[in-house]
Amino acid sequence: MKALTWQGKGSVSVEEVPDPVIQEPTDAIVRITSTAICGSDLHLYEVLGPYMHKGDVIGHEPMGIVEEVGSAVTNLRKGDRVVVPFNISCGHCFMCGLGLQSQCETTQVKSKGSGAALFGFSELYGSVPGGQAEYLRVPHADYGPVKVGSELPDERYLFLSDILPTAWQGVEYADVPAGGTLAVFGLGPVGQFATRIGVQRGLRVIGVDPVPERRAMAERHGVETLDYGKGVADQLREMTAGRGPDAVIDAVGMEAHGSPVAGFAHQALGLLPDKLAQKAMETAGVDRLAALHTSIDAVRRGGTLSLSGVYGGTASPMPLLTMFDKQIQVRMGQCNVRRWTDELLPLVEDDADPLGVMDLVTHRSGLEGAPALYEKFQKKEDGCIKVVLNPGA
């Protein structure tokens, strides 16, 4: 089959790789009809390269048609249409029982001290082949895949694989009081959905991003916006009676701009041998923290900081004096996708499209166009906000 593979820092290519096969009774094989490029994929493209191996199949936002199921899979059959969550969870362990599927004890990558295995996301999370491919082997298919209807287009459902539940969890964790104000830093795909979810819940929502096309998209959905730059925390306080927003979601993560020292660290990591680079990431602060520190500055005293953006540094410096003094609550973590999909499914199927799932994709291609679109997405060129690949096209 054809699949998008990691070839080195800043380099991906479409290659012929072996077709996946059933390995365990709880496996399924899914023919991928749509798969998206996620902002987290850019971490593999740049910062997390030391944990990647040449030829790794990437991608973790897929959906498609079931082609084959293992003997223990009774909830699916050939021909079913499914969305595949990015984290692989069993559904019956202690953590899954708590609704913490991203910490699944059955699939935890204990050798790396990591949580649940993820599709297409490096040695840190199990080196499981990903979904930017023609076919995907899905472990624990007796629990993970979300079965969906056959009438609506893929884009109604595709984002249930990651970014929509990630945004939903971010807003849940933000815990904004009724009628309160939510600020969202970063208006990429997760930030777009987080702002729309906030509006849908009756909150005042302010989105912050330096890219005009992203701000314009958010404004179409009733979101106030600000350009990101020096003084944005003061602007947010001016807009909220001098206090700051009740909660801030950081939907940016390690790809943030405006941190030249960490930017240099990102580049330096790419020059080290993999084992040395891994050690540096596990013991040093290598994140660009401008957006995170601005979020801490901006949120009101007693407010909540909700982290949806992914960070990779173990020793990244944090302003603990400010955080303690302001009595900020901080909530974060990989999304527990299956915890939220039952709540989200009626919303994506609603004719009114209340979360605007049909107003997100800016670029589409077959697999062959993926390498160029990775570069375009990483550089934020051509108004690129969300890319969907159709492997069968």
TrEMBL record:
Record CDD domains: FDH_like_1
Pfam families associated with the record: ADH_N, ADH_zinc_N
Broadest EC class assigned to this enzyme: oxidoreductase
InterPro entries, per database record: ADH-like_C, ADH-like_N, ADH_Zn_CS, GroES-like_sf, NAD(P)-bd_dom_sf
Record SUPFAM superfamilies: GroES-like (SSF50129), NAD(P)-binding Rossmann-fold domains (SSF51735)
Keyword annotations from UniProtKB, A to Z: Metal-binding, Oxidoreductase, Zinc
Known EC number: 1.1.1.-
UniProt GO molecular function: oxidoreductase activity
Annotated ranges, domain Alcohol dehydrogenase-like C-terminal: 189-254
Domain Alcohol dehydrogenase-like N-terminal: from-to ranges: 25-143
Cofactor: Zn(2+)
Protein family (similarity comment): Belongs to the zinc-containing alcohol dehydrogenase family.
Protein name: Zinc-dependent alcohol dehydrogenase
Organism whose genome encodes this protein: Pseudarthrobacter quantipunctorum
